[in-house]
Amino acid sequence: MAYPKSDILNNFDVFPKVLVKDKPAVIRIRPTGGRVVIRPDTDYELVVCYIDGGEPEDFPLQADFRAIRVRADADGCVTLHHTFDKEGEYFLRILKEPGGRDKLIQFSVYCVEEDLAGRWPLIGDLHMHTTRSDGNQDPAVVCANYRKYGYDFMVVSDHNRYYPSLEAIDAYRDVATELTIVPGEEVHMPWVHDKGNACHIVNFGSEYSVNALVEGPQLDEVGDGLQYRAIRTDNVPDTMTKEEFYEKMCRLAEEIDVPDGVDRYPAAVCKWVFDHIRAGGGLGIFPHPNWRPNVNNVAEAFTDWIFSAHVCDAFEVLGGENYYNHNGYQTARYYTQWAKGNRLPVVGSTDSHSSYESNRNAFICATIVFSPANERKALIASVKDFYSVAVDTISKEYRLVGQERFIRYACFLLEHYFPIHDELCYEDGRLMKQYVTGTAEERAEAKRLLDAICGRVDACRKKYFDF
What we know:
Layout: H1 7-11, E1 12-15, E2 18-20, E3 25-31, E4 43-50, E5 65-71, E6 78-82, E7 88-95, E8 103-112, E9 120-125, H2 139-149, E10 153-155, H3 163-171, E11 180-182, E12 184-187, E13 201-204, H4 217-222, H5 226-229, H6 242-255, H7 264-279, E14 283-287, H8 300-308, E15 314-319, H9 324-339, E16 346-349, E17 365-371, H10 376-384, E18 388-392, E19 399-401, H11 404-416, H12 418-437, H13 440-453, H14 456-464
Parallel strand pairs: 2-8, 9-10, 10-11, 14-15, 15-16
Antiparallel strand pairs: 1-3, 3-6, 4-5, 4-7, 7-8, 9-17, 12-13, 13-14, 17-18, 18-19
């Protein structure tokens, strides 16, 4: 997410940074070239402080300050052996004098419960556009630019079209990269006889296109060949005419159970689309109901029905626009619906149409997914299991939406892990763009270098997470 590294991260390497509750940990504090603070071959008192416990004088029952004697070795490195017994952030304070209060230097680590052990924090985007619909860069370049910015995974979700996401995947098929590119699309079913559905739907990761099930831009541009509309060869539904689709939706509209005040035909279309995304193994995302091209993109009663009926798999609570009525209202709705028991996983996305910083909205939102693997099925399953946080970077001071437990963890990661992670991603993205836009010689060089550096981000995770 391109957050700057603090002086602590620049001058000291602390690893691992994320520990598992009740598992003995060995933490190394290693200087990396800054001003000498920790003197070699010297004894120090290090205090482990649980930040949510309060001060010992004020909250003696909750406070957790533990003093441990440590010794710096000849290189000024300090090793701490400790077992953390509560989930949350801890400060490691090295004191100037044993028994004193003044700190010499302070670092942060984080302890997680067992269910998060083995779930890597992966950051990415589940909704963006390219020149194949109304974006400004082609699919391969969009992927390179977002990898350069620090993304671990992403989808090309062009309007009405699935094949651009396959084009993006194919562009890097013969080169080593740790960016996971997921197939997808933004689904818009056709209006027929003045009946349709204004609700946009994002298909993240389905093994076949929903847009391509009905006549429209996808079929007009590339035909109905499976190579353009699926990543599997069996159990792919046949395509249909607009008239056949209309008749099917009319029948479903008669059968669907919706509250009074909710339009039946668009509800039937929504349910049909989300059911198909699930049938293809994808994640069906309900995006931007408070986007205002004129009025709200989706009527309030309709949005309430989406939540209460659990029609979709995830809610794009953040994304697309930088005015408060968009993300602010959607955030309020998410927490209100959660309190009512209508609980949906959250994601944040840019919905970007240009992947360069000249676009005000190019990097305004993202999603952190806590997943056992950076792989399509694992990412989808993790979001569905509520292991995700939406990230708002509209302003310099980021905001997070999701469950409090994961928000606290994500705050730590954005400050203490992702700045290190992002530095590694930058060169990957630069070389990826060189690979798809350069001369033959530049392409060959980019491939050679990408092959050589592939695996660095995975090694970084294994270094900083004690899983």
